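G., the chain you wanted modeled:
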Amino acid sequence: MSLNEKNTREQWGSKIGFVLAAAGSAVGLGNIWKFPFMAGQNGGGAFVLLYFAILFVVGFTLMMAELVVGRHTQLSPVGAYKKLRKKWAWVGGLGVLAGFLILSFYSVVGGWVIRYIVKAVTGSFNITDPEVLGGLFVNFITNPTQPLIYHAIFMILTLGIVIGGVSGGIEKYSKILMPSLFVMMILIMFRSLTLPNAIEGVKFMLVPDFSKINGSVFLSALGQVFFSLSLGMGAMITYGSYLGKDENIIDSSVQIPLLDTAIALIAGLAVLPAVFSFGFDPAGGPGLLFITLPAVFAQMPLGSIFGLLFFVLVLFAALTSSISLLEVCVSYTVDEWKWNRKTASIGLGLIIFIMGIPSSLGLGTWSHIKLIKGLDIFDSVDFVASNVLLPLGGMLLCIFIGWVWGLDNAYKEVTNDGKLKFPLMRVWGFLIKYVAPVAIFIVFIQGTGIYQWVVNLFK
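Predicted structure as tokens:
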């Protein structure tokens, strides 16, 4: 690549814009929806404590690794690996494929969120019975046409931002969406904390019960850190490729996971105290977002307002992640196929929308179709992307940096050719070479069921 080509590559307009966009990529439904119910299912404070410990070992390590590869090459995942070691280009392809598959069903869920915003605006949050709400939710997601309309609306919103480019689209809207999301979450958290008996929810989340810590809780926390930070899909390689050579990767690698985790904790403090206050089950699973919380809002003073506010912030969180997922795919076609951004965005957006149709119909009209391990289409696509492609991408990145490209090259990039000090450099090198790949491999064999298969084989 010539110097001129490098200079014409889009870049972030500001450091804060990059951090907000990257944190926005990490902050998604995994924080607002999954973190509270994962904490609920895994002992509350015990889960949160392990989550923080693993955040440093795996989260920080991989975040820096992806940013290093991206900024060093100034290319999207496939081009980045190809430039450093041509035979490893397929690893970048795993990330692009993962982003493609995840967005196809993620957009379907984003559409559900838009539907719930419409329900909140029309005053539909007045049902307090979770069973009735559950029936309404199931009736909606199994409808053959309604979810597809909202799926299309969500994809159009995502497209509108990505077409604007890195600085004029992704960064511009991240500067609006992320602060708005943060303010709304703080408001809902304070409202939740002022409810009767809310302190029980706070204790549950923040006071660890060490008797709850076991292998299952450890694996749940490890998986949540990995998936929450958008690692393994090439998003941070792509975002890192738009960084200038004088930016401080060390600071960014700390700030992004911390901001992501702060929002996850606020989400937990916004959801769990309210759930406890009204006597619902904190381990309610995925239904916590679309069934339990609407029941909570229905019983809460000014609940319709806070219900609307909550689902708007969930939409913002979903959008900040979806734009990074689409950007991984768009960046690949712009870099490798020389498409212009508008053509790539519209073309890929349309394909991803079409790819999402079977996932949506698989919950209703096509629910009889079972693919992987007896799962429906929606869960099968999720399984391949989340349990196979993401862990493989993260593990191979660690192996690539630690054992193929070499730590010396990585050290030069991290320190801006020795201009920056990084006292934990050797610790990071040890983690990326030995600890992180093993931890991710554990997530992989557990998530794919290989571990259980081997256990059963030797019984």
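Confidence is low (pLDDT under 50) at residues 1-7.

Shout if anything looks off.
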